[in-house]
Amino acid sequence: MSFLTKEAVSYLNTIDMLKKGDKKLIGAWAFYDWANSVYSLVIGTAIFPIYFNSVTGGNDSLVTFLGEEFNNATLYSYALSFSFLMVVFLSPVLSSVADYLGNKKRFLQFFCSLGSFSVACLYFFTGENIEIGILFMVLASIGFWGSLVFYNAYLVEIAHPKDHDSVSAKGFIYGYLGSVLLLLLCLFLQMNPALFGIIDASLPARLSFLMVGLWWFGFAQYTFYHLPKNSPGKQLKKNIIFKGFKELRKVLRELKHLVELKLFLVSFFLYSVGVQTIILIASLFGDKELNLETEKLIVTILLIQLIAIVGAALFSKLSKRIGNIKTLKIIIFGWGLITVGAYMLDKDNANVTLQFYILGGFLGMVLGAIQSISRSTYSKLIPEETKDTATYFSFYDVTEKVAIVLGTFISGLTIALTGSMKASVLILAGFFFAGFIVLSFLKKTKYVL
């Protein structure tokens, strides 16, 4: 094709690109949730936390890591905090560089590959090699959360503002469906090892980690095939790192004049301290504080995921009727009540399992809703003419990650000081109610009512 002009080649390269609002493009974007949500469910919530607690000695056990002794749950929380801290430092620079180069897709692919490979490598973690487990746990977390910066940034490019609520919800619904399906397969393997000739008690869980890595990487290829390669008007130039910082400073200056966006980010930070920390420690809480059996914990997590599908869809429709702000306030208040309810659970109560199931049901209803509505609300608050969407979403991502660093650190420190997770859960309730108050000051906008 050397006889063609550069303009002709450029046209031929873009002729098959799907346009903004196209259902196939939106479906391909949402399918990444199907691919990567198995990490957040199997690794972040269901099997790995329980497996980690088991192979490191059980409740309140001490482990040696890099020559220092830690409570195993404290080490788990601190490792997660460190991974989120790394994302906090990386994502603003990388996203601004991605916006300048116009290659969010390349960064999305890199972090997807890093995360899926690291998850698969958890297969080799048996408990004795604690450093291996922590290393790949941290790298998998960086890969997962790092990829979401660029994935979320595509929302503005693939869908019109009026569709952001439903499109965002669609992604989470795909994610819940895909992750539940794989978790059921992992659970069947774990409960019936003899059918597969498995004698090693740790092997079913480790095979689950391997399946998560393959699932994530494999299904993500459909998304990568359809997402646009470059943003309009972006070209490669020299000194790109410095240009990336310049883009970041530009967005920082713009944020000073976006009052509604700043207010939302403050509220988002406060309630995210609670949301993501609870998601990460929920199974550990049931295991350590309530002494629930592994099967009952996983059943509860499955219940949460299935109800979350309904919750994401219902609250998406509710936001169209009463607006994003009122909907978010209802959801946040519900989260606050759930944390108070979790604090009041007593392992000596004969009905604690039933109470845990009921609480899990309420948690599921608001779980997908708060993630979906938060993402779509933020996308609506970004000025429509904005081209640097990855840079803007890096602020969203950094806000969430700093919140998780604070939340997981509070959790780990509380466990270290008191030996109990209940006190940290009660502290998290305060963050929800503070986020509710700040959100009350957010005024109506064109798309956020």
Could you give the topology of this structure?
Elements: H1 6-14, H2 23-55, E1 62-65, E2 68-71, H3 72-101, H4 104-121, H5 130-153, H6 155-158, H7 164-191, H8 203-226, H9 240-255, H10 259-288, H11 294-322, H12 324-344, H13 352-381, H14 389-418, H15 422-439
Helix pairs in contact: 2-7, 2-8, 2-10, 2-11, 3-4, 3-5, 3-9, 3-14, 4-5, 4-8, 5-14, 7-8, 7-11, 7-13, 10-13, 10-14, 10-15, 11-12, 11-13, 12-13, 12-15, 14-15
Average pLDDT reading: 80
Distance between the termini: 51 Å
Strand order of the largest sheet: 1-2
Tell me the series of helices and strands, N- to C-terminal.
HHEEHHHHHHHHHHHHH
Strand content: under 5%
- Sketch the major β-sheet: 2 strands, antiparallel
CATH class: Mainly Alpha
Second-tier CATH architecture: Up-down Bundle
Shape call: globular
Enumerate how many helices there are, as a single number. Answer: 15
- For the CA atoms, what is the radius of gyration? 22 Å
Number of domains: 1
Strand element count: 2
CATH superfamily: MFS general substrate transporter like domains
